[in-house]
Protein backbone atom coordinates (compact mmCIF):
# COMPACT_ATOMS: atom_id res chain seq x y z
CA UNK A 1 0.00 0.00 0.00
CA UNK A 2 1.39 3.42 -0.93
CA UNK A 3 1.64 6.25 1.58
CA UNK A 4 -1.15 8.11 -0.23
CA UNK A 5 -3.37 5.03 0.02
CA UNK A 6 -2.60 4.80 3.76
CA UNK A 7 -3.56 8.47 4.23
CA UNK A 8 -6.80 7.90 2.32
CA UNK A 9 -7.55 4.81 4.38
CA UNK A 10 -6.98 6.64 7.68
CA UNK A 11 -9.22 9.55 6.68
CA UNK A 12 -12.00 7.16 5.69
CA UNK A 13 -11.68 5.02 8.84
CA UNK A 14 -11.95 8.11 11.02
CA UNK A 15 -15.04 9.17 9.13
CA UNK A 16 -14.03 12.04 6.84
CA UNK A 17 -16.52 11.82 3.96
CA UNK A 18 -14.89 11.67 0.53
CA UNK A 19 -17.56 13.80 -1.14
CA UNK A 20 -16.65 17.05 0.64
CA UNK A 21 -13.86 19.37 -0.47
CA UNK A 22 -12.12 19.31 2.92
CA UNK A 23 -11.45 15.60 2.45
CA UNK A 24 -9.17 16.33 -0.50
CA UNK A 25 -7.53 19.27 1.22
CA UNK A 26 -6.82 17.37 4.45
CA UNK A 27 -5.31 14.49 2.46
CA UNK A 28 -3.06 16.95 0.62
CA UNK A 29 -2.05 18.61 3.90
CA UNK A 30 -1.19 15.26 5.50
CA UNK A 31 0.90 14.27 2.48
CA UNK A 32 2.79 17.58 2.67
CA UNK A 33 3.61 16.97 6.35
CA UNK A 34 4.69 13.39 5.70
CA UNK A 35 7.10 14.63 3.05
CA UNK A 36 8.39 17.54 5.17
CA UNK A 37 7.63 17.79 8.88
CA UNK A 38 8.59 21.50 8.89
CA UNK A 39 5.25 22.27 7.24
CA UNK A 40 3.59 21.69 10.62
CA UNK A 41 5.30 24.80 11.98
CA UNK A 42 3.59 26.92 9.34
CA UNK A 43 0.15 25.49 8.68
CA UNK A 44 -1.52 28.82 7.98
CA UNK A 45 1.48 30.35 6.21
CA UNK A 46 2.53 27.36 4.07
CA UNK A 47 0.07 24.46 3.93
CA UNK A 48 -3.18 26.37 3.37
CA UNK A 49 -1.72 28.76 0.74
CA UNK A 50 -0.03 25.91 -1.15
CA UNK A 51 -3.21 23.85 -1.30
CA UNK A 52 -5.29 26.94 -2.12
CA UNK A 53 -3.03 27.81 -5.04
CA UNK A 54 -3.29 24.27 -6.45
CA UNK A 55 -7.08 24.29 -6.00
CA UNK A 56 -7.64 27.79 -7.35
CA UNK A 57 -9.10 29.16 -4.13
CA UNK A 58 -7.95 31.13 -1.07
CA UNK A 59 -6.29 29.97 2.15
CA UNK A 60 -9.26 30.71 4.38
CA UNK A 61 -11.48 28.45 2.22
CA UNK A 62 -8.97 25.62 2.59
CA UNK A 63 -8.78 26.09 6.38
CA UNK A 64 -12.57 26.20 6.69
CA UNK A 65 -13.07 23.14 4.44
CA UNK A 66 -10.56 21.11 6.49
CA UNK A 67 -12.24 22.22 9.73
CA UNK A 68 -15.63 21.23 8.30
CA UNK A 69 -14.31 17.80 7.23
CA UNK A 70 -13.00 17.16 10.75
CA UNK A 71 -16.27 18.42 12.28
CA UNK A 72 -18.28 16.02 10.12
CA UNK A 73 -15.99 13.12 11.01
CA UNK A 74 -16.28 13.91 14.72
CA UNK A 75 -20.07 14.20 14.50
CA UNK A 76 -20.78 11.17 12.33
CA UNK A 77 -17.54 9.18 12.23
CA UNK A 78 -16.11 6.13 13.92
CA UNK A 79 -15.80 7.09 17.62
CA UNK A 80 -14.01 3.88 18.54
CA UNK A 81 -11.34 4.40 15.89
CA UNK A 82 -11.02 8.09 16.76
CA UNK A 83 -10.35 7.08 20.38
CA UNK A 84 -7.74 4.59 19.21
CA UNK A 85 -5.89 7.13 17.06
CA UNK A 86 -6.35 10.37 18.98
CA UNK A 87 -6.83 9.10 22.51
CA UNK A 88 -9.75 9.56 24.82
CA UNK A 89 -8.86 13.12 25.77
CA UNK A 90 -10.17 14.44 22.48
CA UNK A 91 -12.89 11.99 21.47
CA UNK A 92 -14.68 11.26 24.79
CA UNK A 93 -16.53 14.56 24.79
CA UNK A 94 -16.68 14.53 21.00
CA UNK A 95 -14.39 17.57 21.06
CA UNK A 96 -12.64 17.53 17.75
CA UNK A 97 -8.91 18.04 17.25
CA UNK A 98 -7.70 21.25 15.69
CA UNK A 99 -6.75 21.13 12.03
CA UNK A 100 -3.07 21.04 12.98
CA UNK A 101 -3.61 18.27 15.55
CA UNK A 102 -5.54 16.19 13.03
CA UNK A 103 -2.95 16.64 10.28
CA UNK A 104 -0.02 15.94 12.62
CA UNK A 105 -1.61 12.87 14.23
CA UNK A 106 -2.59 11.22 10.97
CA UNK A 107 0.77 12.03 9.35
CA UNK A 108 2.58 10.52 12.33
CA UNK A 109 0.38 7.40 12.33
CA UNK A 110 0.86 6.82 8.62
CA UNK A 111 4.63 7.26 8.91
CA UNK A 112 4.86 4.82 11.82
CA UNK A 113 2.56 2.29 10.13
CA UNK A 114 4.65 2.52 6.96
CA UNK A 115 7.88 1.94 8.89
CA UNK A 116 6.35 -1.07 10.62
CA UNK A 117 5.03 -2.48 7.33
CA UNK A 118 8.43 -2.02 5.68
CA UNK A 119 10.17 -3.83 8.53
CA UNK A 120 7.70 -6.72 8.33
CA UNK A 121 8.20 -6.88 4.57
CA UNK A 122 11.99 -6.89 4.92
CA UNK A 123 11.90 -9.58 7.59
CA UNK A 124 9.72 -11.78 5.37
CA UNK A 125 12.44 -11.93 2.70
CA UNK A 126 14.39 -15.11 2.06
CA UNK A 127 17.64 -13.99 3.67
CA UNK A 128 19.60 -16.83 2.06
CA UNK A 129 18.81 -15.38 -1.37
CA UNK A 130 20.18 -11.91 -0.53
CA UNK A 131 23.52 -10.82 -1.90
CA UNK A 132 25.84 -8.58 0.08
CA UNK A 133 24.78 -5.69 -2.18
CA UNK A 134 21.08 -6.46 -1.51
CA UNK A 135 21.73 -6.23 2.23
CA UNK A 136 23.62 -2.94 1.82
CA UNK A 137 20.77 -1.46 -0.24
CA UNK A 138 18.12 -2.61 2.24
CA UNK A 139 20.09 -1.14 5.12
CA UNK A 140 20.51 2.22 3.35
CA UNK A 141 16.96 2.46 1.98
CA UNK A 142 15.14 1.55 5.19
CA UNK A 143 17.71 2.78 7.73
CA UNK A 144 18.03 -0.70 9.24
CA UNK A 145 20.85 -3.01 10.24
CA UNK A 146 21.11 -6.77 9.87
CA UNK A 147 21.09 -9.03 12.91
CA UNK A 148 23.23 -12.13 12.37
CA UNK A 149 23.52 -15.41 14.21
CA UNK A 150 26.01 -18.07 13.19
CA UNK A 151 27.11 -16.00 10.20
CA UNK A 152 23.57 -15.79 8.77
CA UNK A 153 21.07 -12.93 8.76
CA UNK A 154 18.15 -13.70 11.05
CA UNK A 155 16.34 -10.35 10.94
CA UNK A 156 16.61 -6.63 10.32
CA UNK A 157 16.05 -3.94 12.94
CA UNK A 158 15.68 -0.19 12.64
CA UNK A 159 18.60 1.99 13.62
CA UNK A 160 17.79 4.22 16.55
Summarize the structure.
This protein has 160 residues and is mainly alpha-helical.
Explain how this protein is built:
This protein folds into 2 domains: 3-111, Orthogonal Bundle (Arc Repressor Mutant, subunit A); 125-158, no CATH class. Helix 1 (3-14) packs across helix 7, helix 2 packs across helix 4 and helix 2 crosses helix 7 (99-123). It is built from 8 helices and 2 strands; from the N terminus they run H-H-H-H-H-H-H-H-E-E. The chain is elongated, with a radius of gyration of 19 Å. The model has no long low-confidence stretch (mean pLDDT 88). It is mainly α. The protein has a two-stranded antiparallel ribbon. The protein has helices spanning 3-14, 21-35, 43-55, 59-76, 79-86, 88-91, 99-123, 132-142, and strands at 144-149, 152-158.
The CATH H-level homologous superfamily of the largest domain? Winged helix-like DNA-binding domain superfamily/Winged helix DNA-binding domain
What is the C-alpha radius of gyration, as a whole number of Å? 19 Å
Largest sheet: 2 strands, antiparallel
As laid out across the biggest beta sheet, the strand order is 1-2
Mean pLDDT figure: 88
Distance between the termini: 25 Å
Which class best fits the helix and strand makeup?
mainly alpha
Element pattern in H and E: HHHHHHHHEE
Q: In CATH terms, what is the architecture of the largest domain?
A: Orthogonal Bundle
Number of helices: 8
The residue ranges in which pLDDT falls below 50 over 5 or more consecutive positions are none
**Highest CATH level, the class of the largest domain:** Mainly Alpha
Amino acid sequence: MTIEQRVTSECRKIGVPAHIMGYHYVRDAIMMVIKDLDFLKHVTKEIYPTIAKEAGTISSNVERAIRHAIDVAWTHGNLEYQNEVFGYSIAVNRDRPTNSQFIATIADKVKLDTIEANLIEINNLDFNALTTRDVELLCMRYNVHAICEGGKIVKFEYDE
